[in-house]
Fold this sequence. Notes:
Elements: E1 2-8, E2 13-20, H1 27-39, E3 50-54, E4 58-63, E5 66-71, E6 76-80, H2 84-95
Antiparallel strand pairs: 1-2, 3-4, 4-5, 5-6
Amino acid sequence: MWALQAYDRALGHWVGQYAFTLEPFAASDFEVFNGHVATNPRSPFTRRPYLQRTTPERHLALDGAVLDEARADGSVTKRALTEEADARRVVNEEFGIAVPGDLRMLG
């Protein structure tokens, strides 16, 4: 069993993120997990946009209408996306995802 941890500067110690083994997963295993989080009414992923992207320079997270950016130097910015056009632009430019025209990003 392996565990992924992230250092939490505010707490001053490492915090567990999730555990895993080195056993391979079959595509059908991922389909079951994905199907559950994509369709379960209690899943946060069915009620709001939730995207993450990590590069060597930064980590971006969009949770609903809030965009967080954590840079490698430790600085963090947070901003609210209040306009539909801005939310679509951010998702397209920062995450590389084209939002279908009939899908609303905000509200």
